[in-house]
Amino acid sequence: MPALLHLCLLLLFSAQGSPAPAEGGNVTVYAPLGGQAEFILYRASLCYDQNACKSMDWRKDITTRVAKFIGSDRTCTDSYKHRCKGYENGSLQLSNLSREDSGYYNVDFHNYSGRLEAKFWFLLEVQGSPAPTEGGNVTVYAALGGQVEFILDMTSPYLCLPSECFIDWRKNISTRVAKFKGSVRICSNVYKHRCKGYENGSLQLSNISREDSGYYSAELYNYQGRFVAKFWFLLEVQEETFSAQNHLQALPVRGALYLSALSVPWIVYCILIRREKN
């Protein structure tokens, strides 16, 4: 359709009070799991100037409100509050994406008369599998009676900020070791006096025993309670090595036995010679 004719039809629909057609069709936006997506608005609508618009209403799948922008007031709903950002021209950014964020998004522009001036449609496709086990199975070695640290790499874009994460530490899946939420780091009674949590969610265990060997996992949930990622560690507690002091202490005993074994043939020989002389 010629651009001029398209513009004439758009003006005609607006003059008759009909909703403006979807500007630019359905724009598909691709984003990685745990990453962010931006729905960019260009000055292509009749209400591109924010001063000419009373409101910009962002929704997902038509029914779910994401945000509402009125002038300089850009308010996101509670469900998107901590991961939603509005721009001056009405564009929208969503961060910390999950698979549930996939779907159709639209923004309605209303003027001060309450009339719908324009409507933009976006299709968001969040790519990637559910949050992977970060770092795979990391094997950690510790000495009997010593200490060990399970270090979390919180730099991955899949993860939430440590201050906004709920981190559940467990041993062999069923036994809870500790729970961290923001600055609150609580160890279970079994590990209470030998457990320490770090600001980034990492865990330290001290006074290690043989029974501490096993698999440890850290499950991360964001502020909405949605699973974000899982880390696995295999702890192998090693027996005390043979010390140099023990080695030195054992030498005289082994040396005496060795000398005794060497002296037996000579003793027998001397006894036989003496008998022959007699």
How does CATH name the architecture of the largest domain? Answer: Sandwich
- Classify the helix fraction into a percent range: 10-25%
Q: Quote the distance from N terminus to C terminus.
A: 134 Å
What class do helices, strands and sheet pairing give?
A: alpha+beta
What are the low-pLDDT stretches, counting only 5+ consecutive residues below 50? 1-22, 129-133, 241-259
Assign the CATH topology of the largest domain. Answer: Immunoglobulin-like
Number of strands: 18
Tell me about the largest β-sheet.
Answer: 6 strands, mixed
**Backbone CA Rg:** 35 Å
Residue-averaged pLDDT: 75
The fraction of residues assigned to DSSP E strands is 35-45%
CATH class of the largest domain: Mainly Beta
Topology as a string of helices (H) and strands (E):
HEEEEEEEEEEEEEEEEEEH
Q: How is the largest sheet built, in terms of strand order?
A: 1-9-8-3-4-5
Number of domains: 3
Number of helices: 2
CATH superfamily of the largest domain: Immunoglobulins
Basic shape: rod-shaped
Describe this structure in words.
- The chain is α+β, with helices and mostly antiparallel strands.
- It has three domains: 3-127, Immunoglobulins (Immunoglobulin-like), CATH 2.60.40; 133-238, Immunoglobulins (Immunoglobulin-like), CATH 2.60.40.10; 249-278.
- 17% of the residues lie in helices and 41% in strands.
- The chain is built from two helices and 18 strands.
- It has helices spanning 3-15, 244-277, and strands spanning 22-32, 37-39, 55-60, 64-70, 73-76, 84-86, 92-94, 103-110, 116-127, 133-143, 148-150, 166-171, 175-181, 184-187, 195-197, 203-205, 214-221, 227-238.
- Strand 15 (195-197) and strand 16 (203-205) form a beta hairpin.
- Mean pLDDT is 75; it is low at 1-22, 129-133 and 241-259.
